[in-house]
Amino acid sequence: MLCPNKRGTRAANKSRMNPLAKPALTQDPAEWLGDAHPLVAQLGTADGLASLHTLAESLATRPITNLAALREFLQAYHARILLPQELPAIQTAFTHASRNEVRELIVFDQQLASEPALRDFASASKRVGRTQLQKLRPLRDERMVQRYLAAVEGGQAHGWHTLVYGMTLVLYSLPLRQGLLGYAQQTTRGFIHAAARGLQLKESACRTLFDEVCEEITVRPELV
Q1: What's 101's DSSP letter?
Q2: Nearest partner of 150 among 88, 105, 99, judged by Cα
């Protein structure tokens, strides 16, 4: 987590004085997810590397025992989950939230439940999404939030973390491209940090790997 800046501190103080104020948000919108992306959070602390091996198997990559295998895993995650599934889901949620289309958002939420690529971490995604959605509960005047929250609590929607994230970008008037890039970068960074200790990777190697696997994302024309 980045240290809160003065603006964030003022926002937090204001939130404490006014319970209906928006929860404080740091400069990086991806930090709204908390300390980790659901896949990273699922790794745990004691057996993080072993859990990474399991995820690697689900992506049909070799066990993560060295830097090259970690690079292969990240590339597979980007190619099979991040780019075709997660970023489009965030963008769709952003669009529906911008137009106050809660019914369309709920329909899309239900459609994601049948997506095979998301099955392995669906429970983690919903857990993180619902946790962050609860933080928005005090926003009584935000009709979109309240109706989506009611649908999740009533079992009509799942509360995927990507959809809550896309909605959050709209609530805080944050640019979509900034949000998509922040999400992709924080997720990638989380995986690298989760594996770094077990693989005894140097900080320089982690930075190089991060820059390498994120290079394609920063130049993608659809992230606008």
Answers
A1: -
A2: 105
Fold annotation for 41-218: Urease accessory protein UreF (1.10.4190)
How many Cβ atoms are within 10 Å of 124's Cβ, its own excluded?
18
Contact 112, 93 (CB under 8 A): no
Handedness of CA 70, 71, 74, 76 (dihedral sign): negative
Q: Where are the domains of the chain?
A: 41-218
Q: How confident is the model over 137-159, as pLDDT tens digits?
A: 888 888 899 999 999 999 999 99
Q: 193, 48 in Cβ contact below 8 A?
A: no
At residue 144, φ and ψ (nearest 5 deg) are -60, -45
50-71: pLDDT as tens digits: 445 556 666 656 667 889 988 9
Token output for 150: 């009611």
